[in-house]
Amino acid sequence: MNWSLAFEPLISLPLLGLVLAPLLLLALAGLWFRQRGAVFRFAALLALGAALLNPVFLDEEREALKSVVAVVVDRSQSQDIGERTKQTDEALAGLQQRLGRFKQFDVRVVEAGKSEAAEERTETRLFGALESAFRDVPPSRIGGAIMITDGEVHDVPAGTPEFNAPLHALITGNDQEKDRRIRFENAPRFGLVGKPLEMTYRVIATNNEAGSVDVRVSVNGEQVSVERAVIGQAMPLQVTIPSAGRNIVELAIDPEPGELTDTNNRAIALIDGIRENLRVLLVSGEPHAGERTWRNLLKSDASVDLVHFTILRPPEKQDGTPINELSLIAFPTRELFVEKIKDFDLIIFDRYQHRDVLPILYYDYIAEYVEKGGALLIAAGPEYAGESSIARTPLMSALPAMPTGEVVDKAFYPRLTDLGQRHPVTRALDGSATEPPHWSRWFRTIGVENPEGEAVMKGADNRPLLLLDRKGEGRVGMFLSDQGWLWARGFEGGGPHVQLYRRIAHWLMKEPELEEERLIADGRGMMLEIRRQTMSDDPGPAQIITPSGKAMTVKLEGSEPGVFLGSIETNEIGLYQVGNGDLKALAHVGPVNAPEFTDVVSTEGRLKAPTEATGGSVRRLAPSSALGNLAGGVTLPSVVPVRASGAATGNDWIGLRTTDDSVLKAVSRVPLFGGFLGLGLLLLAMGSMWYREGR
């Protein structure tokens, strides 16, 4: 029972004071002057005042509230190492059994570390989970918290946790663990293709281990070197970025006997390869309507350094003008085609014909340049079908088609072939989805025979219009019309000449994104996405090897001609190997070098400060001194309810605070001056006063 006295005045307090104050003054004056009957008058006044104040005894029925206790369970990937999962499960079951004995505790179990978001899975964020568990709880009802973790927590607050209650940490693993890991100290995000890139890394070992280890260096899955690294020291590394776009540099060391895990024995750096400006040599024949189309396009591309020569005065042209009055620049044939030909990424002949400007031997040099990896583009006009065609020079070995001598002057819409629908150079070309295509007509096609390579566009009478071919290590493209300038000039609405010409040039210069056969894998969040470019109708499924070594397959579905896509949701963070046919690709899922794996040795140090600041404790579930515990057994402390001012930890016990908060369920009222009892007391007091006054 919880009794208390309350007053429920029958009239308002101001009115009550106005009535009783004069009477009280008179009664007190009577007592002061010792008048006869003053005591009875004062007693009657008190009885009247008490009746008007209406005192009431209240009996409150209250129910005690429970203290809220949070048990935060670390389910991050580092908890999967060794016996930690088993220790965690045993500790959780034991705590739930112990806490279940106390009715004054409301236990909330919160598991952290298995969020769907990749950025949350790569860090152990237990204090964020703890805050969420107490979000709807008043501070006075927080009884404490218990964390079951390996101690590698990444959101430990700098100061004392915001709740005023004991925080206890139970650490999985044991204090004899050892591990060796490798990490990048300095890894630039960008690097020039074909140029050395400076990086630094460090091998770290527990227990201040000394010595050196071999470090395998791989770029895009291929081992390029083996370095010798001194443990604990920052080591320099120089790698060459092989290709534009995403490159994966991986460092790996062999696992040590008895090591916790080899997950952190690899370090990954993602580096975007950037090409230096591409050097293009453009050689134009006699001036024509579309001469500046290629020049304007290449000059507008900031990634291209253009060298352009136009043959305005061939050697056979003799008009009697003295040499000293000519302002033309002599064509530096030897410098361009002998000394510096290897410096160019692409050579373009725009309606060029052999007119003894180039010695016949130099065409052989150009053919050799293509065979060894160079790129050549022929923009052919009527001269390609004539007697002075470059097809009648030693360059013929590098050309994808020989002329028939026929020039077809006939209006036509350039169209994509079946191969062109799938080829990256012409696939989804703006305006190609309609029939006729949504671009202007051309009016000339150069006839060829026995075309090689891939005909991706066709002209009048379905003749080849654009040929793409590989010669040795190099590539050759041939445009069998000189009418592309009609698109550039906006004739009949124009056409996508910039898009097409740029794709052709970059395919010839081996841009990875324009490869016909290409396998791309990328991680987005915890999703592994696969993109397959192919000229075939069905590339088949993709084979995947996970970071832990498990194999699986993913079906690739066609999304557009020449493109097949596939995806799979993963639950492992790390490097995935993807294969399809002869192609292989690497993809890293999740953040690179996630904190979850940088240090996996269980520790008491990180949680020592916040637990001691709240009056709690940190202790191991399986100390190495207990031989039985090395097999995975745990030793749990006893749980003791304590008052707010009491100690919350001991040698073999942990304390959780109880609350004094309660909730009111019912109230019983007993009026003191209610009913006949109150009326009788009031009449007795008044009658006594009158009786005394009557005497």
TrEMBL record:
Keyword annotations from UniProtKB, A to Z: Membrane, Transmembrane, Transmembrane helix
InterPro entries reported for this sequence: Class_I_gatase-like
Origin species: Mesorhizobium tianshanense
Segments passing through the bilayer: 12-32, 39-58, 672-691
Taxonomy of the source species: Bacteria, Pseudomonadati, Pseudomonadota, Alphaproteobacteria, Hyphomicrobiales
Protein name: Glutamine amidotransferase
